[in-house]
Amino acid sequence: MSRVKVATVWLDGCSGCHMSFLDMDEALIDLGKKIEVVYSPLVDNKVFPESVDVSIVEGAVSSEEDLHKIRMVRERTKILVALGDCAVTSNVPGMRNPFGVGPILHRAYTENVSIQPKTPTQVIPPLLPRARPIHSVVAVDVFVPGCPPSAGTIHFVLSELLEGRIPDLSQKTRFGA
Amino acid sequence: MPDATALYQVVTLVINGVEISARSDQTIMQAAEENEIEIPGLCHLTGLKDIGACRLCVVEVKGAPRLVPSCVTRVAEGMEIFTHSERVVNYRRTILEMLYAERNHVCSVCVSNGHCDLQALALKCGLEYVHLPYMTPRLKIDASHDRFVYDPNRCVLCTRCVRVCDEIEGAHTWDVMGRGIEARVVTDLGQPWGESETCTGCGKCVHVCPTGALFEKGKSVAEMEKRRQFLPYLTVMREVKR
Lengths: 177, 242
Prior knowledge:
The structure holds two protein chains of two kinds. By secondary structure, chain A is an alpha/beta fold. Chain A has six helices and seven strands. Chain A has helices at residues 16-22, 27-34, 64-75, 85-89, 101-111, 151-162, and strands spanning 4-10, 35-39, 52-58, 61-63, 77-83, 127-132, 142-144. Chain A is globular, with a radius of gyration of 17 Å. By secondary structure, chain B is an alpha+beta fold. Chain B folds into two domains: 10-84, Ubiquitin-like (UB roll), CATH 3.10.20.740; 90-234, Alpha-Beta Plaits (2-Layer Sandwich). Chain B is built from six helices and nine strands. In chain B, strand 1 and strand 2 (18-23) form a beta hairpin. Chain B is globular and about 55 Å long. The two termini of chain B are 15 Å apart. The model of chain B has no long low-confidence stretch (mean pLDDT 95). Chain A binds chain B through residues 82, 85, 88-92, 94-95, 97-99, 130, 133, 135-136, 140, 143-145, 147, 169-171, 174-177, and chain B through 100, 104-110, 113-114, 119, 122-123, 126, 128-131, 133-134, 136-139.
């Protein structure tokens, strides 16, 4: 039996959700027999495959690169999982939203900088006007709130998906958990 | 506590298919609670007067065109009530989503994370995400008081603080200013809390607040646990006839 193709994606988040994924520890060994991680910050592959069964996405959609990436991921993914509060609510990355992009960049690149204060215009992708939850940009199939969701919750999500069920997380995790 | 001289009758009604009896001066919420039928609420807090502000306790009454807030609706003979019909559950969910979307409830960095009534309700109602767009208003925190902080980003306008300050403490420092989306709870006439001439510093508002909108200085993320035991105690003691 071929293994289920799983990708993990890191948008505007702190990588805490990926750390929580790794926190599954020895459970990962058993999972590894059933899933193949085809794209992830945790593996070498630099190109997102043409077709993926499950994509687990951490982080809010904050920059033009995030937007481009999540649209591409959605196109190539059967089941898209929004993992963690940043992906589900925009959470901490969204705390810039009340201020607007200009003042935030000024704060980060001018006010708090002593050498060559200047907002970069190249290489770094431009910020969107607001950091947004993933479902406001593309359709999401499974929402996993939590900051971060526990390793147990992530394991439950993957186990249910492997059994062909959409996990019911209503009593398993919550915003800020 | 019922007044022994008051005129009330015993009425029979049906909640979720179960026949129950209640006193005619009771609200639907009280009757449900006595019969261990749970109706979610947010602005309701036993010991404070009910005002039906949050609408989370709405229930469906057969024959009534609108949903009714169970905390301020009296029972009546023959009422047939549904506390968790599809319509009610959808309304409740939407109301919760509106509460989340209206201010900046970032649970992960909140002093009340894990001890919050709004969070608990989201869990109870199975709210996994908010499909309404977040409004992300820019609201100033008032940290002018020596011991307490008011963070309007996390306020749900339940007015528990307003009521406890008026009804229990008798100071009436808190009130509501503005209308609709502009409504805010304020101290005195909108002056900084620390300069309030009426605030006694009792802290009752802080402890009845369902979220992290009112908290004690020095508390960090998830450290602010509210203590509400004083409220039923004071209420009962004041009702004792001498």
